[in-house]
Amino acid sequence: MLSVENLHASYGAILALKGVSIAVNEGELVALIGVNGAGKSTLLSTIAGVLRPLAGKIIFRGESLIGKSPEEIVRKGISLVPEGREIFSSLTVEENLRMGAFVRNNRLEYQRDLETIFALFPILKQRLHQLGGTLSGGEQQQLAIARALMSHPSLLMLDEPSLGLAPALVDQIFELITRLHQQGTTILLVEQNVDRTLQIADRVYLLQTGKVKFSGTAAEVRHQGEVEKVYLGGVE
Amino acid sequence: MLSVEFLLNAITLGSLCALLALGLVIVYGILKLVNFAYGELIMITGYTLYLLNTSLQLPWLVMALAGVLVAMFTSYSTELVAFRPVRTKSLTAMLITSFAVSTLLQNAALLLISPRARAVPLPKLFSASLTVMGIAIPWRNILTVVTSLVLLIALTVLLKKTILGIALRAAADNFRMTRLMGVPANVVISSAFVISGLLAGIVGLFWVGRTASVTPTIGGGPLLIAFVATVIGGMNSLVGAVVGGYIYGVIFSFLGVMLPQTLLDYREAFMFLVVILILLFRPEGLIRGAGTGERVG
Asked: Which fold has domain A2-231?
């Protein structure tokens, strides 16, 4: 579904991606792990069109995404939940969701989608007319994911969804990701919580200083001890 | 002293200031650009009235409509031609561009029309008054207040109920994220400039109506008022702009009756003194908006 080949991108003055290649197949939950600064967020931002790559290819369903604007890419079915949630804090929860459905443009479907969202996130129904900025961190994360789902993405990219949440909420978010995955959503997940991520991901890419250090199934990654090497400073 | 007439004058001025400030802030919220060419939109409205009157002699309402449309179109075109090419560059580049557009439009009026004031047509109603319980209320004031209210209500509905309006507010909150929702950046920015032009155009009708004339530099005063009102109200909030505008109108009118005759010429200096005092206590303005302060890239 998505294939990224030999991607180079810089974040400010730093060359953050130095030839990254990854692939995501339909229905898969693929995780990107690695320490801070490995280039995980830069990779997601580049796929979403927020950053322009210096070189390389991004092919989504047979079509190149290079040079496309973020608004074009979301219309093609890729939705990003960025790090730090970035909900619209001065808009109500409902307005946030309406923005999420901007590319849909169908009033009837919108009402139906809202019901689906409320089933997944009951708290959002209670908070519907509150301003986004008044929600707690966990609620904001749920809103950010719900907003992305409103566009019916074929590929959902989540950047550190558990960051800064209390442990009970982290559980909730991971359960939600599992549920979305089981329902058939294709997910590209960036996470710092490696243990939890390895439990739910189909395949894993381990990034280190802008390159793919290792890739394989979650079991392979655990088995080979690659994670420990990278996270505990075992750089060759 | 605080008569009905005073109140009505204060509200009339306040209404104009509120619309002015709103037009400036709707662009600022999204681009973080104080558009210094904003005042020239009022000049453009004035000259449209003048030119149409000297050439075609149409009914005033038709000319007024044309004046507002020309202001909207000018606002839209300046974005397209001048601001869009430098949008991804530095904020300084945008600011200087807005000065350039302002100077260019003023000089065009100087060269093509005249440095001297030109008469603009006014409807008869502008010089008539309504007498209620012995108090003569100028129709111009009533029209100003009513038009402003209608416009503010219409804009509120637009911004709260329509998807374009919600997208405009979202863009002022977080522009990058708004694009990630699939909202085309150019549509949002163009819309903001068109609304800004609409507000400037309508204020322009009343503004040139005060003296029944237009000069190339007529835009300077309203630009400053809009800027000061947004600073009072808060640069990141549309509600703040409206509140700031009304406060400006009330304080300015109040100074007009409070100050002794000899100090009346210094009314603007006193106005700025009040603004400084407000800012000492509320450096971000009276109403804090959301906005990330992040610039469009």
From this structure: Rossmann fold (3.40.50)
